């Protein structure tokens, strides 16, 4: 254990006379605190400690706790991938460092970000190798997260169809469900890690949610909500690995304000389901826009910056930040 440093207190008026002594104390590794009218205003610290502080970088107000959030609803087509990608991009636009992890062997997130398409100078897609996916971590308890790919200012751990092998690995040894959680935390360096879960109750879905501290449940308002009843059981299982797992928000999308059924759904979610989690402002229905953005392999805010979905996902990002008590934005320059 490092020896405890002694602290010395000087008032502003004493420091001039006591400077030689104070500097001797700092050289000896002690801390010197200077007060003015009884309030601490400055500190003298050793050069090594100062260099360490300046090398560490951003001031405390810019430091955030890394938030690991799964976007999951076992229903297929619930909006998991759309919300992961576009919320991630909106958070990036607000200056946050974002890592997206595609946990679905369908790999829609990876494809929609253009990472399953070979670039001009490449023969194969960047996301082709299984070793670039979360499988890398699930296969070995000592492995770190693979080097991420990059798209639109986001870091991405991609998926491809071979990731389905992860399911059998996880079924064969339950302990492996903890590996992703450990590797994400060992990595650090991000403000947000968003995981796009696969549909159904596969082991990959459980690994994604078990790796998270927060869960966003997407709800497609044009589909039935029957499956939400099963979420409780799934959460219980995930909480054996992530005891503090919190349902952060219910996020409705494909909402049409002039449709009576959608208004009823909105009331149900905001009133009756508020015990599960707060509802965020619904994302409106724009099927052509979302389909085209996916086809052109871009977040919707990049594909159509002038259209309303950009603002809607920015609002969602603001609501998520509010729920997590995080600053509305971080300076992009940090
Ligand atoms: N606001 C919206 N308006 C219209 N269509 C939308 C909207 N959001 C998502 N969609 C469409 O809904 C479909 C399903 O969305 P998405 O693929 O994100 O769901 P998913 O839960 O990830 O599906 P899967 O379970 O297959 O992984 C997609 O075709 C997407 O373009
Ligand atoms: Mg999906």
UniProtKB/TrEMBL annotation:
Q: What name does the UniProt record give this protein?
A: Chromosome partitioning protein ParA
Q: Residue ranges of the AAA domain?
A: 66-225
Where are the membrane-spanning stretches? none
Q: What Gene3D superfamilies does this protein's entry cite?
A: P-loop containing nucleotide triphosphate hydrolases, YefM-like domain
PANTHER family given for it?
P-LOOP CONTAINING NUCLEOSIDE TRIPHOSPHATE HYDROLASE, PARA FAMILY PROTEIN CT_582
**Organism expressing this protein natively:** Deinococcus aerophilus
List the NCBIfam families hit by this protein, alphabetically. phd_fam (TIGR01552)
Family, similarity comment: Belongs to the phD/YefM antitoxin family.
């Amino acid at each position: 254990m490092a020896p405890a440093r002694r602290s010395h207190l000087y008032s502003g008026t004493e420091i001039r006379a006591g400077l030689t002594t104070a500097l001797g104390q700092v050289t000896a590794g002690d801390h010197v605190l200077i007060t003015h009218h009884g309030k601490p205003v400055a500190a003298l610290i050793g050069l090594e400690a100062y260099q360490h502080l300046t090398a560490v970088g951003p001031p405390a107000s810019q430091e955030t706790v890394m938030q690991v959030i799964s976007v999951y609803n076992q229903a297929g087509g619930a909006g998991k991938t759309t919300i992961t990608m576009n919320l991630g991009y909106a958070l990036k636009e607000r200056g946050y460092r974002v890592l997206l992890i595609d946990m679905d062997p369908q790999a829609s997130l990876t494809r929609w970000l253009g990472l399953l398409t070979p670039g001009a100078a490449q023969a194969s897609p960047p996301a082709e190798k299984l070793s670039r996916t979360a499988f890398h971590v699930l296969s070995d308890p000592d492995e770190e997260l693979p080097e991420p790919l990059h798209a639109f200012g986001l870091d991405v751990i991609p998926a491809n169809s071979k990731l389905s092998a992860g399911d059998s690995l996880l079924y064969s040894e339950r302990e492996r469900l903890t590996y992703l959680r450990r590797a994400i935390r060992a990595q650090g360096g991000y403000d947000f890690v968003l995981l796009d879960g696969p549909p159904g109750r596969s082991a990959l879905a459980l690994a994604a949610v078990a790796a998270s501290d927060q869960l966003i449940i997407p709800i497609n308002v044009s589909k039935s909500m029957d499956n939400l009843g099963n979420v409780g059981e799934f959460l219980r299982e995930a909480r054996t690995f992530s005891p503090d797992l919190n349902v952060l928000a219910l996020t409705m999308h494909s909402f049409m304000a002039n449709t009576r059924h959608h208004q009823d759904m909105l009331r149900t979610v905001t009133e009756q389901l508020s015990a599960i989690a707060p509802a965020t402002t619904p994302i409106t229905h724009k099927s052509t826009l979302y389909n085209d953005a996916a086809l052109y392999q871009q977040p919707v805010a990049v594909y159509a910056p002038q259209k309303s979905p950009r603002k809607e996902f920015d609002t969602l990002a603001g609501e998520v930040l509010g729920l997590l008590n995080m600053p509305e934005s971080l300076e992009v320059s940090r």
